[in-house]
Design brief:
The structure holds two protein chains of two kinds. Chain A contains 22 helices and 16 strands. Chain A is an alpha/beta fold. By secondary structure, chain B is an alpha+beta fold. The chains are: A alpha/beta, B alpha+beta. The interface between A and B is large, with 62 and 41 residues.
Chain lengths: ~500, ~160
């Protein structure tokens, strides 16, 4: 019986994967053809979604993007045997888009049935946990430190140091809190992992808990991700049934429990201390640091706070060794990064590669240029708090330090592409507006500064006293950067400053 | 002070009782109330406060801090249009303009017949398939104005 893989990833569903699956089932029934349909995550090539893959002895053959109207024709072309069809792309793994990728963290996303522990184990799952259970807590932490893994949520803090701090604390209760509040526009790697391979995150959190002696984990998930919520709940129940969660993890006698908690639409809760407040059931207002969450975190107890991608990288590191992971990457950026190509791009999606490839390779070799066919004028990297990067910097390597060198930041690895129709003064206004909407209100530079920022840009856009207001805006940005309590007010000026620096003409158009 | 209909009040007390023993239960309680009643009525605030041994100000503060919690009854269907950068790069603002004109309402409003509530949303994680929208929890990508109209027709009179 032939196996057909159709994604159940919400992005694929958003383009009709559900209707395609129904049409394939109906057509198979009509033709009395027996087939097994496996619903997987997305492989990440959203430009080919809905992507249907057929298992053949040579590997999975890709057909896409498939609409329900294509289905009868696919059967007529004998796609179940890998037959020729205009939508056929050959072996998925041999597509240029996939061939050069280095999928470590996302190695199983789009491959496995996200709800099945057995399928997960067949594809190398839980090997990392088994290795970890043979090590002491300090040895596990040493592996993470040696791997060079840094926080993939945006701050790039060395994960091993964080874990070591929690390990060294003495407390009746420690926690592992996963930040799954992926609010940055242009990012979806967390969502793809949680929907497509949630057991990797669960395994990573379990290893973290065992390493530092934390027995309770929480996944703080944004409310905008109902599909991921369902996938996580299903996977947690499956892991518990298979005794990978609970009082006796994999027969080790060690306990680790896990629960998903929903956020409620506040961008600020992606900031770690605000997230902890929210997990405690309070307003998501930022805490003053110190104390660090690793010392006094959730409910005042030592807490590991890591992002989804960070924790999902842990099983690979444990399974293959710290050195194998550190062999990827460049400089102080070790390992791989799941990069998300988004916005006005012809071939958007998830590209996992070792640190060090250039923006140009990403935008043109993988992305194929803009979706509109017009020249790319700017990209924003690292979400709404990230700088806008002009084409003269497209040869910069994707590496934390190299990007910092051109005044940009990598953040969570989301890249949003804009063509030459973009008005950068309006994008600068949006950055301030977004900060005003999402400010938690605790500190003045962010709460008041963002509102004043919108007003000043409005005056520039209206052509009122342009030069003076541009100077005022620059000063305001400086105040927010220096005076804000956390990254929201402290970084919201970055897109504004970069727009002023690289796209000044867009402001001048309004100044005259 | 607004009081709840008896049935709703009983529902709120039952929900709080279900979650009371869990650590930091307030957000979970509010999610459950909104899940059951469609919104968090003002009359639920003192009940939740009393049951969780919090002040009314604390509960009110949490309800109003989070964009997701509603304080009034929404339309039968909730349509959220992503207005974040990736979607903007693919025409999200023009789509929002089209949606407002088509529905005759602004963001945060409900059509007079009570069928559709229109909301902005800041990222649905579908940034490679922009512009994105969510209708009653279902995600949609590459939403052109034409596709929006088709989705609205389908939402108002499902097959």
């Amino acid at each position: 019986m032939t196996t057909v893989y159709i994604p159940v990833d919400s992005g694929a569903l958003s383009l009709g994967a559900g209707e395609v699956a129904a049409a394939i089932a109906a057509e198979a029934a009509r033709r009395h053809v027996a087939l097994q349909v496996v619903r997987t995550g997305s492989r990440g090539a959203y430009w080919l979604e809905p992507l249907v893959e057929v298992a053949t002895p040579a590997g999975r053959i890709a057909y896409g993007p498939v609409t329900p109207e294509d289905v009868a024709g696919l059967f007529a072309a004998d796609f179940l045997q890998g037959g020729a069809h205009p939508l056929r792309h050959g072996l998925t793994d041999q597509l240029d888009w996939f061939k050069g990728q280095q999928r470590l963290t996302c190695e199983r996303v789009g491959i496995v049935d996200p709800a099945s522990v057995a399928d997960y184990e067949r594809h190398g799952g839980y090997q990392g946990l088994k290795r970890a259970l043979a090590l002491s807590g300090a040895e596990i932490v040493q592996q993470i430190t040696a791997s060079g893994l840094r926080g993939r949520g945006g701050a790039a803090f060395p994960t091993g140091i964080k874990w070591k701090t929690v390990l060294e604390q003495t407390a009746a209760q420690k926690y592992v809190a996963c930040n799954a509040d992926e609010g940055d526009s242009g990012t979806f790697a967390d969502r793809m992992l949680m929907e497509g391979d949630p057991l990797t995150l669960i395994e990573g959190m379990t290893i973290a808990g065992i390493a530092v002696g934390a027995t309770q984990g929480y996944i703080y998930l944004r409310a905008e991700y109902p599909h991921a919520y369902a996938a996580l709940k299903t996977a947690i129940a499956a892991a518990r049934d298979a005794q990978y969660l609970g009082a006796n993890v994999a027969g080790s006698g060690k306990r680790f429990e896990l629960e998903v908690r929903l956020g409620a639409g506040a961008y600020i809760c992606g900031e770690e201390t605000s997230m902890l407040e929210s997990l405690e059931g309070k307003r998501g207002e930022v805490r003053v640091r110190p104390p660090l969450p690793a010392i006094k975190g959730l409910f005042g107890q030592p807490t590991i706070v890591n992002n989804v991608v960070t924790l999902s990288s842990v099983p690979w590191i444990l399974a293959h060794g710290a050195e194998a992971y550190a062999n990827f990457g460049m400089g102080k950026s070790r390992g791989t990064l799941p990069i998300q190509l988004a916005g006005n791009i012809r071939r958007g999606g998830l590209v996992e590669r070792a640190f060090g490839l250039s923006l140009r390779e990403l935008l043109y070799d993988y992305g194929g240029g803009s979706a509109s066919g017009r020249p790319i004028r700017a990209v924003q990297i690292g979400g709404p708090l990230g700088a806008y990067v002009p084409p003269e910097h497209f040869d910069t390597a994707l590496d934390y330090e190299a990007l910092a060198g051109v005044g940009a930041l990598l953040g969570h690895g989301g890249i949003v592409v804009f063509d030459d129709t973009v008005d950068m003064a309006r994008m600068a206004r949006y950055a301030m507006e977004f900060c005003a909407i999402e400010s938690c209100g605790k500190c003045t530079p962010c709460r008041i500064g963002s509102t004043r920022g919108v007003e000043v840009i409005d005056r520039i856009l209206a052509g009122i006293d342009g030069e003076r207001n541009v100077r005022l805006l620059e000063e305001l940005c400086e105040t927010m950067v220096q005076g804000s309590l956390c990254g929201l007010g402290g970084m919201a000026p970055f897109p504004v400053q970069s727009a002023l620096k690289h796209f000044r003409e867009d402001f001048r158009a309004h100044v005259s | 002070m607004e009081t709840l209909p008896t049935a709703d009040s009983a529902a709120v007390r039952r929900i709080v009782a279900e979650h009371k023993g869990r650590p930091g239960p307030l957000l979970e309680v509010l999610h459950a109330i909104q899940g059951e009643l469609g919104f968090v009525p003002a009359g639920a605030v003192p009940v939740v406060a009393e049951e969780l041994n919090l002040s009314r100000a604390e509960v009110h503060g949490v309800v109003t801090f989070y964009h997701f919690f509603r304080r009034s009854r929404p339309g039968t269907h909730t349509v959220s249009l992503c207005q974040a950068e990736a979607c903007q790069s693919m025409g999200a603002q023009a789509l929002a303009q089209h949606a407002r004109a088509r529905l005759g309402i602004d963001f945060h409003e409900t059509t007079p017949d009570g069928t559709i509530t229109l909301e902005p949303i800041y990222c649905l994680g579908n940034c490679a398939c922009s512009p994105a929208a969510m209708i009653d929890g279902q995600l949609y990508g590459r939403v052109t104005p034409q596709r929006f109209d088709a989705l609205m027709a389908q939402t108002k009179s499902p097959k």
